[in-house]
Amino acid sequence: MVASDHGQPWRSSLYTLARGRAGTLLSQARKGRLAELQARAALDAQRASENERLESTVAQRTEALGQSLQARRQLLGRISHDLRAPLAAIVDSARQWRAGDSRRDYPDLIERNANRQMELIDELLEFSGTEQAATELAPVPGYLYTALYEVAETVELATERHGNCLHCHFAPDLPAVVQADFRSLRRVLTNLLGNADKYTRRGDIHFSVERRLADTVDVARLHFRVDDNGPGMSAAERERLLQPFTRGANISHVKGSGLGLAIVTTLLEHMGSELEIDASSEGGSRFQFELTLPLAQESDLDPLLEDDGAMAIDGRGYTIVIVDDDEQQRELTSDLLNGYGFDTIAAADGRETLDRMQRQTVDLVVTDQIMAGVGGWGLLQAIRQQQPELPVILYSGLPPLRPVELDAAIAFDTTLLKPAHGTTLLRQIVRVLGRSADQYEVAAPGVVSATVA
């Protein structure tokens, strides 16, 4: 009885302790299970987030790759399109030259367009993967009229082939030297004029450049316009035709890629302008845009008068006066002529030239046009009065701007726009000194031989 009375509390305590420990173990097991579930859920969420991030990265890179490939495709198409213009000009020049046409300096035209084609090929080779790299602007100081006339001369060859007539109207108040991306500007103008010529047959194409009033004195606001009397286009087509590989509905009979206007649009966008398309008063289409270009001076230009050494000239015994108010230009031209044996005299204006001519006999005067002192036209008038037979060449960054009061019979022997190729300048000097262009003989491939007599 005593043992039984004392054992019951002990069993009860042991049961209570065991039950408490079991509860603790179950509680810990539940917490452990819960922690495991939470860890698995966090891991699943992390995996899902990582998968989503990877999928987003892949999608972004796939899109970027697609855009890059599209940009490459468009650039290749544009450069291929632009390559045709200088190549066609080379072919046309060779044909006209072979036929005996003497209206233009065809060797110079061929060389200029070959250089242009090499520039485009270099642009293609240097392209690194984005369209932006191919349209990055490279503004430099340069002669505006020279760039415009070079474009017009190149395009005129194609217009003659199609029976069209190109009319150029360049305002006399355009600046001589501006800061511009001339490579892009030439591409824009060549494409617009080429587009007008392509869709016009036996018609007229008008190319005009005018100067608009600007807000400041150190910039020029220029308005460019191309008119044709081709088939034209509807208002609904005009916006659509600015997209790549898009062509008009009524020109399916003419070969083309539909890239010309798209190239113009992209280039003008990078130049801070936009193309406007309207109906032309000529009955076809009008393409126009404006550019604001900083003014520059001749002294800003890189000193360069290219000479390939192709002319074998002996200028010994001949004295030529180089008249230019820019010292760098005087030295550049003098150095070229001195290299061929000519004696040169440098003068800053017409008054200094006339003073030197009173003390020394000269054989030729090469003069600029607009100078601070006596200009080229005043110098020409004085020379025609004093020495009527003395040849005078106008070598200027501006086309001839004859004063209205000057006698119409007074004229330069020839005119050249700066910067002329050294060979071109030498050829004209030889001609006015008494040799005709027919007296040049080919001494070797790429070498022209002539002697001043």
In short:
The chain has 453 residues and is of the alpha/beta class.
The CATH topology label of the domain at 138-296 is Heat Shock Protein 90
Q: What characteristic shape results from the CA principal axes?
A: elongated
Terminal CA distance: 158 Å
Biggest sheet overview? 5 strands, mixed
The CATH homologous superfamily of the domain at 138-296 is called Histidine kinase-like ATPase, C-terminal domain
How would you describe the overall organization of this protein?
Among the domains are: 138-296, Heat Shock Protein 90 (2-Layer Sandwich); 300-449, 3-Layer(aba) Sandwich (Rossmann fold). It starts with a helix and ends with a strand. It has eleven helices and 15 strands. Strand 4 and strand 5 (219-228) form a beta hairpin. It has helices at 2-98, 106-126, 131-134, 144-161, 182-198, 235-240, 260-270, 327-338, 350-359, 376-386, 422-432; strands at residues 140-143, 165-170, 177-180, 204-212, 219-228, 276-279, 285-294, 311-312, 319-323, 343-347, 364-367, 392-396, 414-417, 441-444, 447-449. The chain is elongated, with a radius of gyration of 38 Å. It has a five-stranded mixed sheet with strand order 2-4-5-7-6. By secondary structure, the chain is of the alpha/beta class.
